[in-house]
Design a protein that fits this description.
The chain is 64% helix and 5% strand. The chain has 413 residues and is mainly alpha-helical.
């Protein structure tokens, strides 16, 4: 689909063909992005997911940085079609690499050595306890670990997307993703025009002003490693909270001087770094929410899991942010000026820091969050569920959610 859409853009001469090509490009990119992240999550270990997501963010930022620069140079020196020749080459290489890719579940069948466990393999194995009683729920917070009856699981299962959207923790992560994309892309429509009118720069100089926004993403893998080690909550919180005053300070750039140019570049670099601190934990949160839900209710997403659907939601919110950002920036600057635009974005970032603090890494008041910083249930304290599997009516299945410390299971005569 991506190759066909690129051909349409290359040879198309009418507005309808060009629009159709861009729509198909967006659809194919959304598909590849969602499935690619799900495959990545299923392959790497849980302790490395933050660093890996940081690397993904770095690669994405480098793509945004290199592609316009390379396209402009090739267009200026070789013409229109060679630009698309590069795109076709990249697409062919991508297809070949995907054909050569061996998924982890396939590799397991051929390797004698154990494969490093991914997130889908780290879920606890159900412990079967012999009993003739119906499904039970063990309330861990009671003094004597009382067992109370629970209703049998209904054969009806909600679609994974609906289940995911019922998670306040995931909704918080998706909102953070949308805000980060909104703030970043708000500059796309206003920054080139502002530096051109204020500093008298050409389009080349205006394009170079995006470098300070993107270069800080080079440290994204380091940020991911910090999130793996110390948790994502305060990284995301400090990222959004720190972005707010820096955005407001952009209103100080008002006239043409060397000092003003240096100030603008410095502020943009700080914004890029702060947003990187916020965005990398947001990407990892999507993984941890799915994993925590599976721990709390095994099989809730079926045999295939829900990583792809979770990251499809992530992609939807990120794309929505890239749509809102340029419109926000353009309308506010044209109506109220550069200073008001930076002020409104700063307020948006400060407000977003609140749900980032409360829900990132699980509900902030979750008593089990200190045990595992990134794998809290996200909905507050949870119970340990003991329920009989559908195919074995004479047993109980003990499952420990991600936020609970280990407990002793008591067999019943």
């Amino acid at each position: 689909m991506l190759g066909g859409a690129t051909v349409m853009l290359c040879v198309g001469s009418s507005l309808a063909v060009l629009i159709t090509g861009r729509v198909l490009q967006g659809m194919s990119a959304a598909n590849v992005w969602s499935v690619g992240l799900a495959l990545l999550v299923d392959t790497v270990g849980q302790t490395e997911i933050g660093q890996i997501m940081g690397t993904v963010f770095l690669a994405m930022s480098l793509g945004f940085l290199i592609s316009p620069l390379l396209g402009g140079i090739v267009y200026a020196n070789a013409g229109y079609y060679p630009v698309f020749y590069m795109a076709f080459g990249a697409i062919v290489l991508d297809i070949l690499l995907r054909l050569l890719l061996i998924e982890k579940k396939v590799a397991k069948k051929w390797l004698d050595e154990p494969v490093a466990p991914g997130l889908s393999d780290t879920l606890p194995v159900a412990l079967q306890l012999p009993t003739a009683d119906p499904a039970m729920v063990l309330d861990k917070h009671s003094e004597h670990a009382n067992i109370v009856p629970a209703t049998d699981a209904s054969p009806f299962r909600l679609p994974p997307v609906i289940t995911l959207l019922s998670s306040r923790r995931l909704l918080s992560a998706l909102w953070c993703c949308l805000v980060q994309a909104t703030i970043t892309t708000a500059f796309d429509s206003v920054l080139p025009l502002y530096v051109q009118s204020t500093f008298g720069w050409s389009s080349t100089g205006a394009g170079l002003m995006f470098l300070p926004l993107i270069i800080p993403s080079l440290v994204a893998p380091v940020i991911g490693s910090v999130a793996d080690k110390y948790g994502s909550r305060y990284l995301a919180f400090c990222g959004f909270l720190g972005t707010a005053p820096i955005l407001v300070l952009l209103r100080l750039v008002t006239f043409n001087s060397i000092g003003q140019k240096v100030l603008l570049a410095a502020l943009l670099a700080l914004i890029g770094f702060a947003l990187s601190c916020a965005f990398v934990p947001t990407m990892t949160e999507v993984t941890y929410v799915v994993e925590a839900r599976e721990r709390k209710t095994p099989g809730i997403f079926g045999k295939q899991g829900a990583y792809a659907q979770a990251y499809s939601l992530f992609n939807v919110f990120f794309a929505s942010g890239t749509l809102i950002g340029p419109i926000w920036g353009g309308f506010v600057v044209s109506g109220a000026g550069w200073g008001t635009m930076s002020l409104t974005l700063g307020i948006l970032s400060a407000v977003t820091a609140i749900p980032a603090l409360i829900w990132t890494g699980g509900f902030i008041r979750d008593p089990g969050r200190s045990k595992d910083r990134n794998s809290g249930s996200g909905e507050g304290p949870g119970d340990i569920e003991l329920r009989s599997p559908p195919a074995q009516s004479g047993s109980l299945t003990a499952v420990e959610p991600a936020t609970e410390e280990s407990v002793d299971f008591i067999s019943h005569a």
